[in-house]
Amino acid sequence: MATGLYSENIQIERAKLQEFIQNKEQWAVLIPGYLHHEFPNDQNMIWVFQGDFGIIQKAVKVELKGKESNLNQVMFDLVGLSDPINGDGYFEITQNQDGTCQLAGNLTMKASGFLAGMMNPILEKFVPQLVEKLVQEMAVKASI
């Protein structure tokens, strides 16, 4: 199972960062390789992005199914729509003692089916890079 965890400290008001992570429309476009997204309902989001899996570049379509969350955390399950890739993740805010906020992102993905033996080692490299880049972009965008 491929896991990526990354956090970034941001000089920002906590309420502003809370508003940012709760509004998926603001950060949906920040995923590396973003192509488009849609919202089938208030809780779920479908993301389509160009994944660079080493020698293979492929459009990947996944659904983020929102789970019970709060102002400081957005949690979701991930269901592959174009490929048998599933997982879960979250974005979470914590307040640091120096007044800055920390934005953490976590994503776990696992391939199943016929190509799992080939895809899972690729996801091991891909997922941590994806999470790091996404959280970095979110930190910049939220601070604007």
Rg over C-alpha atoms, rounded to the nearest angstrom: 15 Å
Number of strands: 7
Distance between the termini: 35 Å
Structural class: alpha+beta
Please mark out the parts with pLDDT under 50 across 5 or more consecutive residues, or reply none.
Answer: none
Tally of helical segments: 3
Order of helices and strands: EHHEEEEEEH
Which overall shape is indicated by the principal axes computed on the Cα atoms?
A: globular
Residue-averaged pLDDT, rounded?
93
Give the biggest beta sheet: 7 strands, antiparallel
Strand order of the biggest β-sheet: 1-7-6-5-4-3-2
The proportion of strand residues reads over 45%
Helix share of residues? 25-40%
Oligomer: single chain
How would you sum up this structure, described in words?
This protein has 144 residues and is α+β, with helices and mostly antiparallel strands. The protein contains three helices and seven strands. It has a seven-stranded antiparallel β-sheet with strand order 1-7-6-5-4-3-2, covered by helices on one side. The model has no long low-confidence stretch (mean pLDDT 93).
